[in-house]
Amino acid sequence: MDVLGNYKSVIAARSTDKDILKKSQDGGIITTLFAYALEEGIIDGAIVAGPSAEPWRPEPMVATSKAELLAAAGTRYTISPNLYLIKEATRSYGLDRVGIVGTPCQIQATRKAQLYPIGMRDVDDKIALALGIFCMENLSYQALEAIVEDHCNQKMESVKKMDIGKGKFTVYTERGAVSQMPLKLIHKYVQPGCHVCLDYVANLADISSGSVGSPDGWSTVFVRSMKGNAVWDGAIAAGCFETKPIDQVKPGLDLVAKLATEKITKNQKHVDERKTVGLKADGTPKGLRNPYESP
Amino acid sequence: MVEKPAAEKPAVKPSDVIVKEKVEVVQKEEKPVAEKITIGELHLSGCTGCLVTIADNYEGLFKLLDNYADLVYALTLVDVRHVPEMDVCLVEGSCCLDDELSIEELKEARAKSKVLVAYGGCAAYGNITRFCRGGQWNQPGQEAFVPISEIVDVDLYIPSCPPCPQEVRNVAVMAYLLLRGNEEQKKLATAYLTPLMQLAQRGNEACGCDLMYDVINQGLCMGCGTCAGTCPVRAVTMEYGKPNVNRDQCIKCGACYAQCPRSWFNFDVMNNYEGIMDAIKGAMQ
Ligand SMILES: Cc1cc2nc3c(=O)[nH]c(=O)nc-3n(C[C@H](O)[C@H](O)[C@H](O)COP(=O)(O)OP(=O)(O)OC[C@H]3O[C@@H](n4cnc5c(N)ncnc54)[C@H](O)[C@@H]3O)c2cc1C
Ligand code: SF4
Ligand code: SF4
Ligand code: SF4
Fold first, then answer.
1. Is the distance from CB of B92 to CB of B46 less than 8 angstroms?
2. Helix/strand/coil (H, E, C) string of A242-287?
3. Which of A83, B185, B205, B283 has its CA 20 to 30 A from that of A22?
4. Which chain A residue is nearest to residue B272, measuring alpha carbons?
């Protein structure tokens, strides 16, 4: 099993745009790529996790300017149902070339919408750039609130940045306080749907990126599809990124592969356990529904 | 039968991709394609939206008809009175039990077609005709309407109201590959069509509630928002990352559940999304 999916190249990279780096989660890969693609007319707009009325609750948004992209930069560790806008972007917003960012499951949803456009009229050929972000698990908003307010003892509205790394969930406040909790305590809050997830690094994205594998402030980038390759080459030629070969950074690709293997092995086991969770009258096991076998 | 040129533009996986996982690749056709398949549309109790959807492929429809399929039966489009033999029959609309002719034609279509498709929400799940209780103009006596699988065996479902032009196109291309293609193409077409055939086995009741019963209650929802983005009547909204269904607004079309990546997700097909999309695009050029 190849846990990292198909890719043409993998590099460590960081945006050269200082404004973006100030707001982005890691190397600003996603915001920079969308800004470049907007500028070049590769996309007319991008579906991103925009702000909402509540602190740290993302609301999917169609960004059509760099300012809007910046307003949506950075990670919110809670669900942003970005696919909600995928048909809307082509209809109400009238975009012919749509960009979308999403967790691996959201990129899977995007590809299903393109290959099996059952209720997705006129969408399939309008997805111009699907950018994936690595993802180990996700949380409901209420779970995130419990983590930040109960465990880390900070108010949601006073938090400047949240980050996961080195086994810890870390909260940085506007006034400079830093609160942490061990990542393993988060497990009970993870939404159930994540336990059957078999993708860590957005294998079906055009380009996917995450912090794991590269030094702080840098990102690991997988360039996967033909489309992704063309956009990446263009962005590099335009000077959007500084890059380093992945085998020259620490901790490097091995860590990405290790975490991906851990996630997928654990979740595959969960998928398998679901098949025999119950008991039939004849003494044989009774299973739950398995989306990887049939609807 | 007229000799037809080979379908152009195969999708071959770009050679510089680092492929570590075996995925199916659509191969170039070896010999010219001699025969088109035959497709018909049987119109039962539907609004003609499904039929119009086929035409919504615009020039793609002409390409389909030029290279891959002859339309042998369809309301207004084809001047044929009686249900003919056909490879693929798309049935639009539910079946009215108070109209003998509907039942007869549906059975005839089943007997005369290789693949019978419940095309659109009404044929598959009843859709809005589920709400009929008789007394409507201009047939007040007609009040019993059932999804077609109550009357005949159905091979494949294409849900939604209306269905999408691109989905019926994909099914037509895949049916062509299944019936006329080489071994490799048959394998791909089978893999592609399998979940739609499984949907037909799953049952003929649909509702936004399926998102609760078969996704959230089963511990499978991850909040992608696809269901809400899909619903043609906007009966689904996302509240704190999970779908919320306005059940009074739901017309029972089945689109949300079928489109949800956690109703089914077949890696064998999805992992080759690039090749398959290129192949379909190539076939349509
Ligand atoms: C739930 C979650 C879990 C993650 N887990 C990991 C992990 O285990 N390892 C790892 O290396 N990386 C993980 N990431 C990715 C990482 O946090 C960064 O998002 C990624 O490195 C991109 O950073 P950037 O600086 O390039 O992007 P930025 O320029 O900061 O842009 C990030 C983009 O992602 C969008 N976004 C933010 N939150 C969400 C969301 N919840 N859902 C969908 N889109 C969103 C934003 O709108 C923005 O467009 C996770 C992200 C999420 C949302
Ligand atoms: S773990 Fe998987 S299912 Fe959960 S949010 Fe991340 S990509 Fe989606
Ligand atoms: S909720 Fe919407 S998409 Fe789902 S079955 Fe009802 S009408 Fe169709
Ligand atoms: S489409 Fe996405 S949000 Fe809707 S039920 Fe399925 S997994 Fe959940």
1. yes
2. EEEEHHHCCCCHHHHHHHHHHHHHHHHHHHHHHCCCEECCCCCEEC
3. A83
4. A204
ipTM above 0.95, yes or no: yes
Pair type for strands A127-133 and A207-210? parallel
Q: Per-residue confidence of chain B (285 residues) as pLDDT tens digits?
A: 444 444 444 444 444 544 444 444 455 444 445 599 999 999 999 999 999 999 999 999 999 999 999 999 998 889 998 999 999 999 999 999 999 999 999 999 999 999 999 999 999 999 999 999 999 998 999 999 999 999 999 999 999 999 999 999 999 999 999 999 999 999 999 999 999 999 999 999 999 999 999 999 999 999 999 999 999 999 999 999 999 999 999 999 999 999 999 999 999 999 999 999 999 999 898
Residue A173: CB partners within 8 Å, gap ≥ 6?
A154, A158, A159, A160, A179
Question: Is there a contact between B222 and A79 if contact means CB atoms under 8 Å apart?
Answer: yes
CATH fold label, A139-189 = Nuclear Transport Factor 2; Chain: A, (3.10.450)
Q: Which of B257, B251, B260, B183 is nearest to B27 (CA)?
A: B183
User: Which CATH number applies to B209-263: 3.40.120.10, 3.30.300.20, 3.30.420.40, 3.30.70.20?
Assistant: 3.30.70.20
Q: Of A2, A119, A138, which is closest to B255 when you measure between CB atoms?
A: A119
Contact criterion met (CB below 8 Å) for A206 and A187: no
Q: Closest partner residue to A138 among B167, B222, B260, by Cβ?
A: B222
The Cβ of residue A9 has, within 10 Å, a number of other Cβ atoms equal to 17
Cα–Cα distances in angstroms (integers) from residue A237 to residues A36, A150, A242, A246, in the given order: 11, 47, 11, 19
Q: Which CATH architecture has domain B37-202?
A: 3-Layer(aba) Sandwich (3.40)
Cβ neighbours for A110, distance < 8 A, ≥ 6 positions apart: A83, A86, A100, A102, A127, A130, A204
Contact (CB, 8 A) for A33 and A207:
yes
Which ligand is located closest to the Cα atom of residue A134? 1
Cα distance between residue B7 and residue B268, in whole Å: 24
Q: How many CA atoms lie within 13 A of A202 on its CB side?
A: 29
State the Cα–Cα distance between residues B228 and A109, nearest whole angstrom: 12
Distance from CA of B98 to the nearest CA of A (A): 30
Domains of chain B, by residue range, sit at 37-202, 209-263
Q: How far apart are CA B230 and CA A273, in angstroms?
A: 31
Q: B247: closest CA among B238, B235, B255?
A: B235
Helix A29-39 vs helix A226-237: crossing angle, to nearest 10: 90
